[in-house]
Structures are given as C-alpha cells and as structure tokens.
C-alpha cells in the first residue's frame, strides 16, 4: 500500500482528499501545518506528497525546497494561488504538478496515480550508468543509486528534472520539442505547459553548470550535447 502525505489546513479539504485516496487504496498521513512534515519525509515512509502553500506556520514553497534537499518523491501543490508566477515558482522549487483550487478530487487522485506510475517506470527503465564530456567538463550518472555528478560533484535533481534529463541523455543529439518532452516525461498537458518545460530546462542548466549540456534548437526544442566516454 502506497502512502500519500497531505499538508492542508482546511479540514474539509483534508477530509475529502484523504477519504477519496483511502477509498482508492492509498494510506494517508495528514498535517495541518509544516511542523513535523520533514521528519516524516525523512523516515522514507512517504511515496508522494500533496502540499498547500499558505499554511499557518510557514510557506509551502519553502517546505518543498526543504523536502527536495532530502527526497525526490513526487510533489503536488494544491493551492488557491493560481497566478502564472506562482505556478512557475512551484515548479522551480521542485514540484511535479500544480493543482489550483477549486479542484476535482477525482482528477487529483488520477494525477497522483499518473505521477506514481511515472516515478516507478523511471526507476525501472533507467539507462545504464554513463559518462559524458563537454568543453573539458565531465558528467556521469549512477543509476543504481539514482545519482548524477558533474566533475565529480553530486547534483540533486527533482523527479521531473531527472525524467527530462534521463530522456534527453538517452538520445544524444536528438531534438525533442517541448510538447514531446511534456508528453513523454510528464505524461500530460495543461495550461502553461511550454513554460513548465522551459522552467525545468532552466533549472537543469543551472544545476549542471556553465557548459551547454542541454542545447536549444531554435524553433524546434532541446537536445543533449554530451559526448559519450567509451
């Protein structure tokens, strides 16, 4: 039985979402504030987390950043903050999905299933450990431990960033459109989707360093430029 953690200070929403998840076969852990959430994540007992942003003792964006420092479990924001800037910030701090209130409980549960399915598939279909070079820099992945290194320094990726990087690096010099990356790596389309992919790519480039590991082909999309080390 997979465990979903829900951080939400509205008891009606907590009851509705938790109840629906339990009916669908999930175990749920609920919090109405940030205190205690990180310790629960660190225990390794959570498979996915759903986070509100406006919480009585802090900000969900900061909580997501703290979670990303210790875990790559899928994260969904469930919030009334529906501006484009909030959505983009949500993905920048490590969210895999962003659902605005009011929302469909059934759709939220379907999104939970989709994220867990993609997370499981990514773990089971990871390419063999590989190393690439580019402009005197070296990049390598260790799929057994799900780690990525640039010049020997570990780089922490979110779940969505890992899926995008793993797909691009598995197809050196092949160009993929934003729509294709969204479909293959994130599995569905939603409003602002192109900006979502652009945000993930920008975050990846920042984490991978100054080399153009991920190149832009204007008018077409993105490609991985690393040169495999034999």
The termini sit apart by: 42 Å
Shape label: elongated
Instruction: Give the spatial strand order of the biggest sheet.
Output: 2-1-3-6-7
- Write down the Rg: 18 Å
Largest sheet: 5 strands, parallel
Low-confidence stretches: none
> Count the strands?
14
Name the helicity range.
40-55%
Indicate the proportion of strand residues: 15-25%
**What does the average pLDDT come to?**
86
| Class derived from helix and strand content | alpha/beta
Count of DSSP-assigned helices: 8
Please write the string of helix (H) and strand (E) elements.
EHEHEEEHEHEHEEEEHHHEEE
Written description of the protein model:
The chain is of the alpha/beta class. The protein has eight helices and 14 strands. A five-stranded parallel beta sheet has the order 2-1-3-6-7, sandwiched between helices. The longest helix is centred in the middle third of the chain and has 20 residues, at 105-124. It starts with a strand and ends with a strand.
Describe this structure in a few short sentences.
With 230 residues, the chain is α/β, with parallel strands linked by helices.
């Amino acid at each position: 039985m997979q465990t979903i953690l829900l951080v939400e200070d509205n008891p009606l929403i907590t009851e509705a979402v938790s109840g629906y998840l339990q009916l669908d076969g999930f175990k749920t852990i609920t919090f109405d504030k940030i205190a205690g959430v990180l310790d629960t994540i660190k225990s390794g007992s959570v498979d996915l987390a759903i986070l509100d942003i406006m919480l009585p003792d802090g900000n969900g964006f900061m909580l997501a950043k703290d979670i990303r420092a210790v875990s790559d479990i899928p994260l969904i924001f469930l919030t009334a903050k529906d501006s484009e800037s909030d959505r983009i910030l949500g993905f920048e701090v490590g969210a895999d999905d962003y659902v605005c209130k009011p929302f469909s409980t059934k759709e939220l549960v379907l999104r939970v299933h989709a994220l867990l399915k993609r997370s499981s598939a990514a773990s089971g279909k990871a390419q063999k450990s590989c190393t690439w070079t580019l402009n005197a820099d070296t990049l390598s992945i260790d799929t057994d431990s799900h780690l990525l290194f640039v010049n020997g320094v570990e780089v922490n990726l979110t779940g969505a960033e890992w899926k995008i990087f793993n797909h691009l690096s598995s197809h050196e010099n092949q160009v993929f459109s934003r729509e294709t990356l969204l479909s293959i790596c994130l599995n569905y389309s939603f409003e602002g989707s192109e900006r979502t992919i652009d945000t993930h790519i920008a975050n990846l480039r920042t984490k991978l360093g100054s080399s153009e590991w991920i190149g832009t082909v204007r008018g077409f999309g993105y490609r991985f430029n690393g040169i495999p080390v034999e």
